[in-house]
Write a structure and sequence with these properties.
Elements (H helix, E strand, L loop, with lengths): L2 H40 L5 H32 L2 H30 L5 E3 L12 H5 L10 H10 L6 E3 L3 H14 L3 E5 L3 E7 L6 E11 L2 E10 L8 H16 L2
Antiparallel strand pairs: 1-6, 2-6, 3-4, 4-5, 5-6
Length: 255
């Protein structure tokens, strides 16, 4: 290899490294903006619309970072330099990984109906009593939305059904309260046959209210549950998942 070729190779390797490095910096900035969107909303620094915009812009920056990583990888491949190629590959993975999270959320939102109030009893949904005031102060209604929501729930979540347990009423209530506490819910009231609590999502801090109603039946204690978001037309399947997980955990606890 001639000295000119060697100098050209070194210049190419340096360019590949610099391009990939810029991509890495952009990926880091994207990660910080996307991770900070939720806490910024929770602490009141941003409105919900601004927080979602920050999340969206972060995804665009992450795509740009992945693009720069690809350019660096191509240059490194032509100059046969391993380290810039490795850095470029890592930047591509980081950028695409950051984009994957909001993309999967978008796909999930498209896969479920735009409803936010889920219950095991659509004919006589458990009613909120202790949590009426905070729900009245929130955008979404206190009362169950009605048949339009029920129809969409039946089609999307046919497995959301009441649970019947053979244990005494007080045992079932104690187990339900224990599960609520372990889930990190803020319990508003836990009486003889009903429990109301608020679940707060980890990232954005969205608040969803839960009511659990116990009814004595000839074959045991029927457990009905309702989980409803205070904000947003669609819960992206969160409330159905919460009911499903709670019922399974409660049944396992009492086995």
């Amino acid at each position: 290899m001639t000295p000119d070729h060697m100098r050209s190779g070194h210049r190419g390797a340096g360019l590949a490294f610099k391009v990939a490095l810029v991509g890495g910096i952009l990926a880091l900035l994207a990660a910080l903006s996307m991770a900070g969107a939720g806490p910024a909303y929770r602490t009141g620094l941003l409105t919900l619309g601004d927080a979602f915009s920050l999340l969206r812009y972060g995804a665009f920056v992450a795509l740009g970072a992945a693009g720069l990583g690809l350019v660096g990888l191509i240059i490194a491949a032509f100059t046969r330099r391993a380290r810039p190629a490795l850095l470029g590959g890592l930047v591509i993975l980081a950028g695409l990984g950051l984009v994957a999270m909001p993309w999967m959320q978008l796909q999930q939102a498209r896969a479920v109906p735009p409803i936010h109030d889920i219950t095991t009893d659509m004919q006589d949904p458990p009613a909120f009593e202790a949590l009426v005031a905070p729900r009245e102060a929130a955008p979404n209604a206190v009362d169950y939305p009605g048949e339009a929501t029920a129809r969409q729930q039946r089609e999307a979540y046919p497995d959301i059904q009441p649970l019947v347990l053979a244990e005494p009423l007080d045992v079932v209530m104690a187990a339900a309260a224990a599960e609520a506490r372990e889930a990190g819910w803020e319990i508003a009231v836990a009486g003889d046959a009903r429990l109301e609590a608020t679940a707060t999502t980890l990232w954005f801090g969205f608040k969803d209210d839960v009511v659990i109603r116990l009814t004595e039946m000839p074959d045991g204690i029927r457990v009905d549950m309702r989980s409803a978001s205070r904000l947003g037309a669609s819960d992206v399947g969160t409330n159905a998942a919460r009911i499903r997980a709670f019922m399974e955990a409660l049944a396992q606890r009492l086995e």
